[in-house]
Amino acid sequence: MKPSYGLVIHGGAGVITRDKLSPELEVRYRADLGRALEAGHAVLAAGGPALDAVVAAIRVLEDSPLFNAGHGAVLNAEGKCELDSSIMDGRTLGAGAVAGVSRVKNPITLARAVMERSPHVMFAGAGAERFAEQVGGIELVPNEYFQTERRREELRRAQQKEKEQANRRAALGGPAGPLFATIDENDSLDVERKYGTVGCVALDKNGNLAAGTSTGGMTNKKFGRVGDSPIIGAGTYAANATCAVSATGHGEYFIRVGVARDIAAQMEYKGAPLVEAAAATIAKVGSLGGDGGVIAIDRHGNVALPFNTPGMYRGHRLEGRAAEIAIFR
Ligand code: ASP
Description:
By secondary structure, this protein is an alpha+beta fold. It has one domain: (Glycosyl)asparaginase (Glutamine Phosphoribosylpyrophosphate, subunit 1, domain 1). The chain contains eight helices and twelve strands. A hairpin with a 4-residue loop joins strand 9 (292-298) and strand 10 (303-304). The structure holds aspartic acid.
């Protein structure tokens, strides 16, 4: 029997391998993924809307220091956290997004407020925070709340690598500054290629789909850089007629492929099954040289979790089945 409700979450894709993840840390990752699934599942089992389940699950991951969203988000080149988030309601095609916010404790709640309480879809930077102040009920915190020592160390390593790349380029007679790095030199963005963005897609008992994504972006990103996560159609998409999708990976590639909408479009235009469509889109990202993955669910409760990296923090819980959590391929 097809499940009438369920949810899928991710906590980022990347070079996540057994030798790089200690058993102690793995236990903590699994526990927090389990708590997020539990929070979303409780909403759905009680007959609540998919949108509420998405927000409930993502808030748990934003509050966890382990993932690259909210507390524990990665640092930009200036050593600050700038957060991006988006949400979409598959029932109405309503959508909300925020980019580059630095004081909003749970960016997913602000994305939802943009969708429900403004005539717009996306707010960026200081304006997004002004909206947060005006709309009320959105918790604001100092930027230090998001920053952790582990992320500072990652930034140090990324900047060291960036310096080495720039020196190499200069020695070959090219421009020396970090902004001249090509996309092929992108290693200095996320040295460890562990993305860690969080996302959730859900199907509720009324057959409604929703998707949401929240992130700190990429380590050492430059001023004002925005990735795919807050971009509707790239990092997030939901339409009851097709599917709900949340992405994680190297955002520059995911934007160019229009990943989340590309999966829905294959279902809409050629009737592709969810699993096939999701795999084909991740293959497109891979053929451009990008890495990452997606989670997706359709209105029949089919789920897809393809990724082209060594690992992706992920889990799902469907009606009548036990929760499943996985990290490695
Ligand atoms: N997709 C995110 C970005 O490029 C990063 C991630 O998935 O962790 O901003």
